[in-house]
Amino acid sequence: MFYKDERLALFIDGANLYAAGKALGFDIDYKLLRQEFMRRGKLLRAFYYTALLENEEYSPIRPLVDWLHYNGYNMVTKTAKEYTDSMGRRKVKGNMDIELAVDAMELAPRLDHAVLFSGDGDFRPLVESLQRQGVRVSVVSTIRSQPPMISDDLRRQADNFIELDELRDVIGRPPREPRFEREPDAEMSTN
């Protein structure tokens, strides 16, 4: 599936990979992920794409973004847009598909193998275009979740489909236990 002398790049759809890992019950250890693909070939770039909320004092993803940036990942971020839908619900939109596709197309002439961490069927035309340029494409996602996290069209288009659950022992760590607020001391009542 991988050749030691091939030039490869990782294209990680952050929200999609997070959701797939969560659906399978594990967190991704990004240091181990990068090491695993450095072992599989000549890793030229590891891109990570995510949207960040503006106007938030603290974003839970900010520490991850900073860590990835300082540990060899090319971070591609943009500000997510907040809006209210027709039902009055607050929604956040932060699609990074175009940024990922542009980077993959620009890097294609220098790649032998692209590894896409996403199950989004919108990437099928990108995979097809990379293949026409002579780039082999592996897609990492899961069919073991309910529902499956990968589009059937994308899985069929890829040269290789890598089941994320089969990488669990190599790049996974158990999910962190949720932190519970300490309950206030109950008032003692006297009769």
From TrEMBL:
Looking up InterPro entries in the UniProt record yields: LabA (IPR047140), NYN (IPR021139)
Bias-annotated ranges (Basic and acidic residues): 172-185
Q: Which Pfam families match?
A: NYN
Gene Ontology MF: a single term: RNA nuclease activity
- In this chain the NYN domain maps to 7-165
Out of the domains of life, which is the source?
Bacteria
Chain intervals for the UniProt region annotation (Disordered): 172-191
Q: What PANTHER family does the annotation carry?
A: SLR0755 PROTEIN
| Protein's recorded name | Uncharacterized LabA/DUF88 family protein
Species whose genome carries this gene: Roseinatronobacter thiooxidans
